[in-house]
Design a protein that fits this description.
The chain has 334 residues and is α/β, with parallel strands linked by helices. It has a domain of 68 residues. Helices cover 45% and strands 14% of the residues. The strands form two sheets. A four-stranded parallel β-sheet has the order 2-1-3-4. Strand 3, helix 4 and strand 4 form a beta-alpha-beta unit. Helix 9 packs antiparallel against helix 10, helix 9 packs parallel to helix 11 and helix 10 packs antiparallel against helix 11. InterPro entries: Bact_Sporulation_Assoc (IPR051922). It comes from Methanotorris formicicus Mc-S-70. This is Cell wall binding repeat 2-containing protein.
């Protein structure tokens, strides 16, 4: 019996001595669909864990979640407007290496992520890479592309309906084909124009049209998501009457089967909602939510990769557009 007790004691001590499981790398990103798709690419390639924060809002609970994973490094996708600098400050104070990869717009962020990790992407995709192209403001196409990325199907490049975030020939990848992800209710996306441009450059191009029933379902989901985002603002004392009025307009258009008009208004609504978050809830805005830190650093000293910030002195000549917007809509800042 004494021997059995000793065996049990030794077993329990061995459990205590087991090393803490470490997620070597964590990717921190906002719920902006364009940045999130980039984060999925990086996480898939590095076998990292993705942590998602509300765009422009600092959530202290996510720090605890990241620290519980015991990462050696955290890669932040998106700028300090999208992912507040409070996160990087708290993580660095905890002794964790942080690298932020971003640009002034979602297009530049996509370009800088693609170039920063292109060697890892080359290893992952080999000599048979498929590139998926979708509009940077088209959340429906972005979410569809995100599923393709999760399946290891493709690497994503963004378009503004005129150019691409990165010229494909500048990538150190052997591209087998390019898929233009088409959302049939996106009036400003110019899918055919982009596809024709790429074919004229000699690429094998396929247009992947999202089925209309799936598009309608995704639009309905976007309405539900927007309702929650408006509720967050409203609960913090922000006047959301204009946002609510515009969301009602979207729902009325949906009921009339005017899906293109409904989607156009929804894209505008998202931009307005993000502007309100930046003004009222972002730590660097005029108003701050409860629990947010009062001091912010003006610069981003922890950036380790020269071209991660396309707004600095290091130019990125392969990016063909800055603040691109041929649809009359404002690009979300990062």
């Amino acid at each position: 019996m004494v021997m059995n007790m000793w065996k049990k004691l030794i077993f329990l001590l061995s459990l205590i001595a087991l090393p803490i499981v470490s997620a070597t790398e964590v990717v921190l990103v906002s719920d902006n669909a364009a940045d999130k798709a980039c984060a999925v690419e990086v996480a898939n390639t590095l076998n990292a864990t993705i942590i998602t924060t509300e765009w422009g809002i600092y959530n202290e609970n996510l720090i605890d979640e990241i620290l519980a994973l015991n990462p050696e490094k955290v890669i932040v996708i998106g700028g300090p407007v999208a992912v507040a600098e409070n996160y990087t400050t708290r993580l660095e104070n905890a002794g964790i290496e942080v690298e932020r990869v971003w640009g002034k717009t979602r297009y530049e962020t996509n370009a800088n992520v693609t170039l920063r990790f292109q060697h890892q992407f080359r290893t992952a995709y080999g000599d048979n890479a498929t590139v998926c192209v979708c509009h940077g403001l088209d959340d429906i196409a972005l979410n569809e592309t995100m599923e393709k990325i999760r399946d290891g199907h493709c690497l994503m490049l963004l378009t503004n309906g005129v150019n691409l975030s990165v010229e494909p020939t500048r990538l150190q990848l052997k591209i087998h084909k390019i898929e233009v992800v088409e959302n049939p209710i996106c009036q400003f996306c110019n899918h055919s124009g982009i596809a024709n441009m790429l074919m004229q450059r000699g690429f094998k191009v396929e247009v992947d049209k999202i089925p209309e029933d799936r598009v309608k379902l995704m639009l309905q989901n976007r309405i539900k998501t927007m309702e929650m985002k408006i509720k967050i603002l409203k609960n913090r004392g922000v006047d959301t009457s204009e946002l609510e009025s515009k969301l009602n307009e979207v729902e009325e258009l949906m009921n009339q089967n005017r899906y293109q008009d409904a989607y156009r208004i929804m894209v505008q609504l998202q931009g307005e909602q993000m502007a309100m978050v930046r003004l009222h809830l972002h730590p660097m805005g005029h108003g701050m939510a409860k629990g947010m830190g009062n001091k912010m650093e003006g610069n981003v000293p922890h950036i380790n990769y020269k071209n991660t910030n396309a707004s600095g002195n290091e130019n990125v000549p392969h990016i063909y557009h800055q603040n691109m917007n041929n649809s009359g809509m404002t690009n979300a800042q990062h």
